[in-house]
Queue: 2 jobs
Job 1
Amino acid sequence: MTTTPCVLALDVGGTFMKGAVVGREGVIRHEMRAPTPQRVSVGQGLDEIAGQLRSMLELARDLQLEVVGVCVAVPGIVDEASGTIRYAASLGWPEVPVSQELSSRLDRQVLIAHDVRAGGLAESRVGASVGVRDSLFVAVGTGISAALVVDGSPVSAGGMAGEIGHVTVPDQATTCVCGRHGCLESVASASAIARAYGDLSGTEVAGAVEVADRVRAGDPTAAAVWERATDALGAVLASCAAVLGSQVVVVGGGLSRAGPLLVEPLTRRLIDRMGAAPAPRVVSAVLGDAAGCLGAAMLAWRSTDARTHA
Amino acid sequence: MTTTPCVLALDVGGTFMKGAVVGREGVIRHEMRAPTPQRVSVGQGLDEIAGQLRSMLELARDLQLEVVGVCVAVPGIVDEASGTIRYAASLGWPEVPVSQELSSRLDRQVLIAHDVRAGGLAESRVGASVGVRDSLFVAVGTGISAALVVDGSPVSAGGMAGEIGHVTVPDQATTCVCGRHGCLESVASASAIARAYGDLSGTEVAGAVEVADRVRAGDPTAAAVWERATDALGAVLASCAAVLGSQVVVVGGGLSRAGPLLVEPLTRRLIDRMGAAPAPRVVSAVLGDAAGCLGAAMLAWRSTDARTHA
């Protein structure tokens, strides 16, 4: 009996871990979702992730699939080459050699990927920027970070690429979670938009998507908060897109659910601020929260194929 | 008799063409300099460049060297892959298939390179950013453009990468050569600095280096012009360095002759504006106006070696 090969992909998000058993050509054979370990030690967190992978390995065996690669997408400053998280605020982790720790727990090679770079790769292969060689994916959620796809591949720069969340934007004095003032993230992230609207209007909102609803309903406070956020994001993205020569900017993360309300002002800002250089097309991400998991699966397949052909 | 191989490199600048006959390991066997054809048709310009290459071919023959590659570095929007200049304001050229035109005139393959990307490559291999995988080279002269070195290689994005000269900087209303207002180039280029000082002080200066001298001598008008320029440049470079995760920013072009007067304020601005992300080291270029020619020679060797090993 010949076995069918597959890879395991797991995206460790702030709230949920999303896993998938993925066949060649990206066919998803099984998906799972489990809560991300919260307020546990690094060792316990790694144990829980390893446990999740172990149950996915068993599942693959039950499905009579042969697991040929495993990749885990994680947030933070992630150096894929050494398999290390340098720092992950959302997990509360310091520097951790995640790849090595998980590989020894499972007694097989486990790769790690950066969640946003994995998402950007997936959007460029099967999502919003298919067929585009040079694109910029920007994830706007609790924080803001970007993934550069240059000549078809995500750029890591030892984990430092795409860290635009704390670039200072002019004339903004909001205090950021990092303790500094005027960071892009403190003005234009989904959480910053919700917080700013609450502060200015005295009305608590569930999140930035509710602020977007209020913009559409004609609320002038919501419109001012929204304009400040898209102005700041547009200013930083203009420099990024100009230096990269990006043809497309894909906006993902929670804020992208605002759709045209986000895409249209960003398009205008990029045209205004990029002057003589051709501004990229701005589009919403299409893969939603599946992007990181799909990208991790692609990286697992890529590594497996490189090993096979070496 | 065995012949020694060499490549020909020619950097077509705004004023001069700089050529070199370059051996393996970058040994320069001969250098030349000739005026760049001015105010001639595209065809005449190409004829003059071809003539220059022909005399370099003869010279190599006299030196008993075998020419195994030829690369010409040119300014503008340059798509190296197709060998085409998309637009070159300083030469007054529209879209021209330069590689094909020169190859047919010389009856041998002539590659083209972008002058700033070639310079950035040279600085990363034998200049100011040796040993650094991810660096950003910014050439500040009549205009401003950048070269991204990502994982050791220059990024082109079809010729569009690095075009930061016309990114709009906040609160600047100066009219740019492109007809728009507030472009980075209209505030922070060497020519803009000289012009702004002349306008504000009523004193004509030979160039930005003279403005730098006046800053050092305590001239408050010169200091204000200089601060405005370095602020604007720092703001755009902060976003670029953050998204790229650059470890080093190399400042080249005419303005880099200002040395620490430029490097120190840019270093401060990058630290200020990059917040939580580690700011890159800022250094002056070290290869001067030889960088483009050296980079073109490296690209010629790289292409020759790829052909030989294919």
Note: The radius of gyration of chain B is 20 Å.
Job 2
Amino acid sequence: MALIVQKYGGTSVGSLDRIRNVAARLKKTRDEGNQVVAVVSAMSGVTDGLLKMAHELTSQPSERELDVLVSTGEQQSIALVAMALQDIGVPAASITGRQAGIYTKGSHTRGRIADIDPSMMNAFLAEGKTLVVAGFQGVTPEGMIHTLGRGGSDLTAIAIAAAIKADVCQILTDVDGVYTCDPRIVPNARKLPEISYDEMLEMASSGSKVMQSRSVEFAKKYGVVFEVRSSLNSNPGTLVLEEHPAMENVVIRGISIERSQSRVTVTGIPDEPGMSAAILGALAEAEINLDMIISNIANDGYARHSFTMHSNDLGKAQAALKPVLEKLSSNAKIETESGIAKLSAVGIGMRSHSGVAATMFKALGDAGINIGMISTSEIKIAVTVDERSIEEAARAVHDAFHLDKEPV
Amino acid sequence: MALIVQKYGGTSVGSLDRIRNVAARLKKTRDEGNQVVAVVSAMSGVTDGLLKMAHELTSQPSERELDVLVSTGEQQSIALVAMALQDIGVPAASITGRQAGIYTKGSHTRGRIADIDPSMMNAFLAEGKTLVVAGFQGVTPEGMIHTLGRGGSDLTAIAIAAAIKADVCQILTDVDGVYTCDPRIVPNARKLPEISYDEMLEMASSGSKVMQSRSVEFAKKYGVVFEVRSSLNSNPGTLVLEEHPAMENVVIRGISIERSQSRVTVTGIPDEPGMSAAILGALAEAEINLDMIISNIANDGYARHSFTMHSNDLGKAQAALKPVLEKLSSNAKIETESGIAKLSAVGIGMRSHSGVAATMFKALGDAGINIGMISTSEIKIAVTVDERSIEEAARAVHDAFHLDKEPV
């Protein structure tokens, strides 16, 4: 008998019929001899409807009250899923975030899990109940309702799996698992049987939309092995786990791409201490998430700083930089480029294999694709290319590393 | 500065516009120099919508899960009312039943308030916040969500007023206050400036729909003075309070009527110990609320038991009685009468005034109205009449006691 945590997103519980399907699936897992804890999101559409009301009522709803309002969505779905389970003869109990003992810190609408007191969950499990826990929510130590922000239900599932020492944590979603690349772009992309936490993190932060980084980080920190799999079929998915020696044999695990990027390059800044800090500080204050950051000295002796960001942030970035640059140097100039995309090749095998960058650049060169910026980490090589070439670039790199084939 | 609890029902918060009105009204009370705690129900329609989903999902939703589901309705309205207050510059905080420290006992969907720990409310009040508390809900000592059943938000308001030692508790509703009789039936009915708890209880249990008995009982137990007043205007309403000597000068405070009653009379039962208990026990087991109960010995030496009940329960009562009567006596017979109504005259002055029944019966006799059953308590005389005569009966008794005139 295994103790299994299964997370179902808003689409999976998006109607009463789908709720019945989730219940049937939970029953099946239970009938196979397992104890089951389901973590569910709000029915799709419910959260948006509540937010709409709040914004009709006031232009600036307080985040504390948004949490109180929005957290009702998950509370409704847990009650409904528990009823659907009981209807097919499964003893079940719904558990709110507070009842699950999920204590949070941080600010409203984007809380972080600080601690879990699983005593109520353990008591119900001891009674043989299947639990249905509200994802995305918890309470502060003072008892204020907190939601966990984007990807919060995944985080709840992983944190609960750690707290109740589950054998398996399954993230059930609308994809089959983690692929070597997005199969809509690379048709011969292959589903990975496993991927390490670090690789998953690099994939997440370079555009793979399967999971938010912080859920993966949490799983890594607490050693929670989880599986990303489909909520629509019973195929095995992808296990995400701590790396083991055999994993290093694979040079590149996967490729992720990110579109709609823009580059800002600042030139004409004296190469003096404090200059970079002033520039990056202005962008951070404007809450712009920078992706690649490259600095160098140009031929004219001035420093040259380039950043990439989502194109939506470009205008805000220019506005934030203008006053700072005026103060720093009369020669300062801003140069921008939109319509670029980023391709990242990720794999822990890179650490022990040389020539990875060369293989990748050759593949792109052979395909006639020009490389813009380059940035690397220990287990990732990222390049920017013209957005119109990104799909071709992905296919070329995927082929160059033979990612369509099982590694030997 | 007074500390005021105001309770708003589901209609009062039934749309975003109405929520804005409630916020404006709370602000006005606050601007007059008071501290305010609002207790609100779910937006009208929300609870029914949730129940409908539950019943579509399963024919017998568990009461525990119904509580989890339905309690989200109030949680949504408190967040929205708090946002609306903040939008007009009032510092406000929503408080769920659990946060209000409302601890309950009893069964799910009809919990009773056992205790209140007002520490979070007091802390927010000390910060100068206007509080918006979810009516109708609490938690068990084990942390399970509990709803309080019909009239639960009134009960919440009165219990909170007791716990935070409020100066006033106002139940804002769609009637102006408590009247000497229903003004739709007796056009010259008069709004009462005050009524005692005991009179209010007798009115409630004899058909006046203003408030549930248990809220009045709770107020009486804890000495909470409350006012029933309109949510639509600022007219003074009716104070409900412990009786004081001057109140005894009024013989009859008010008249309430209850329609759709039926009588069941059981005859031919030997006058032996245990017989009444067997009959009443069978009806109690079938969860039939009896109203008047009259027993006597008939001329044939057999006992004769009559009960009144809501006509909806008549069939159920007959079915419950049949097997018992067959066992008790071969002479037992059931006789039923529908289409009757009850008129109750209520007043603590009855205790010290004689001739009240005589005045009432004479008024009915003069109007040519036949009296069926009669039952009395220390402060109430109730009679049944043909349902078609009930309005005329109410007017006749109202006139006989000059209830349209201020007492001197």
Note: The mean pLDDT of chain B is 94.
